[in-house]
Amino acid sequence: MTPLLKRAAGWCVALCLAASSVHGGGFDSSPVGPPAGPLAPTQDGELEALVSRLASDAEGAGALRPAYDLFIKSMGDYDGDSALRIARAMHQRSFAMFDSGEAASTVWSAFCLEGALRRGATDANLDEHFKEASRALKALMGHPRTSRADRLALVQRHAIVAAGFGRRGVEAASLGAALAQGGIDGAQITGLARLQSAPKNGQDDWETAGALFANLLDRARAAGTQDPAQTPGPLPLDPADAPWALRGHGLSVLGSLRASSSDLTSAKPGSR
Q1: pLDDT tens digits, the chain, 272 residues: what are they?
Q2: Burial of 30 (0-12, 13-18, 19+ CB in 10 A)
Q3: Around Cβ 72, how many Cβ atoms within 10 Å?
Q4: Distance CA 185, CA 171 (A)
Q5: Could you give the CA distance from residue 130 to residue 54 in angstroms, rounded to a whole number?
Q6: Nearest partner of 255 among 2, 19, 15, 14, judged by Cα
């Protein structure tokens, strides 16, 4: 690969990674955050009151919003213990409401919980935290009230969580499931992996990456012309998501052409 193509590859991967951090929070692969700091007395009292309200059938629903606000504050303050405690209570209440039909979705609280578990993971509790995050996501994946779009979002998040905890086999299985369901992350992350391995592995990886990104571009063109509820195949892709897919596809085409050119140049006279 020429120096120019290598630089182009680096920029494309960087841009795609930046895009993925916006779409679903992908690629935040480190589960271990800064150590938790001590609680301020007023916040400690607020936390206890909210956990108590969330556990109450009478007050639980009304406590979700202030609990979420405190969760976000705790995460921003790197207060992992508080964030995890409020996330557990919040998801328990939210899931109960979803299970009973009171709430349309509880994916948001599951994502809060897995985020807190990743942030609070240490070498000592890594396996325990991964299993808890995985259980929370899988419980919703298999729930009969979970919508098709939510189920796909959960599968894709499961792949990201598995990557963050170093569970590469689970990550690969989840990415495969996401790809089969037409997931953006399934195509994007698998396509990026092929772009990264293509300089070493050759033409097959360039072509696979090109096919994955081309599929996303085709879906972007179809967006607005299909009803997701009536579409059996992959859900249409928002055209606003197409620029990074276009970069990935462009780079894969350049790499494929370069690999083909190298094969022709290196071929012995009379061998073709």
Answers
A1: 444 334 333 433 333 333 333 333 333 333 333 334 444 434 568 899 999 999 999 999 999 999 999 999 999 999 999 999 999 999 999 999 999 999 999 999 999 999 999 999 999 999 999 999 999 999 999 999 999 999 999 999 999 999 999 999 999 999 999 888 888 888 888 888 889 899 888 889 999 989 988 888 887 766 655 554 554 555 556 666 556 788 888 888 888 888 777 655 555 555 54
A2: exposed
A3: 13
A4: 12
A5: 24
A6: 2
Backbone CA torsion sign across 60, 95, 166, 160 = negative
99: tokens are 């299970």
Both tokens assigned to 154: 């959960």
Q: What is the DSSP string of the chain?
A: --HHHHHHHHHHHHHHHHHHHHSTTTT----B-SPPPPPPHHHHHHHHHHHHHHT-TTTHHHHHHHHHHHHHHHHHTT-HHHHHHHHHHHHHHHHHHHHTTS-S--HHHHHHHHHHHHHB--TTTHHHHHHHHHHHHHHHHT-TT--HHHHHHHHHHHHHHHHHTT-HHHHHHHHHHHHHTT-HHHHHHHHHHHHHHHHHH-HHHHHHHHHHHHHHHHHHHHTTSS-GGG--SSPPPPGGGHHHHHHHHHHHHHHHHHHHHHHHHHSPTT--
d(CA 82, CA 70): 9
The pLDDT assigned to 20 comes to 37
Please tell me the number of Cα atoms within 13 Å of 197 on its side-chain side: 12
Phi, psi of 183 (to 5 degrees): -70, 140
For residue 76, give the amino acid letter: G
